[in-house]
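Addiction module antidote protein, HigA family, pasting as requested.
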Amino acid sequence: MKPIHPGEILLEEFLKPMGISQYRLAKDINVSPRRINEIVHGKRSISVDTALRLSRYFSLSERFWLNLQTRYDIEVQKDKLEKR
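Structure tokens follow.
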């Protein structure tokens, strides 16, 4: 089973249900729209800076976002090790 990138969770569990565009989120948390787009498309990790901004915006712990990223990173590395 392919690991789920935190960006997919951001898109499917937060942005879509709340009717928030990627552009609006980016502007509201003062980051570039490109950063949010790259996260949503799995091309960029959620950094500590982004986790802090998302946690304030969605009233969640920054650990929530960092844990999602860490779990994803662990699963990706496990898959790589198993293929060796």
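Note for the archive: Residues 53 and 67 are 15 Å apart (CA to CA).
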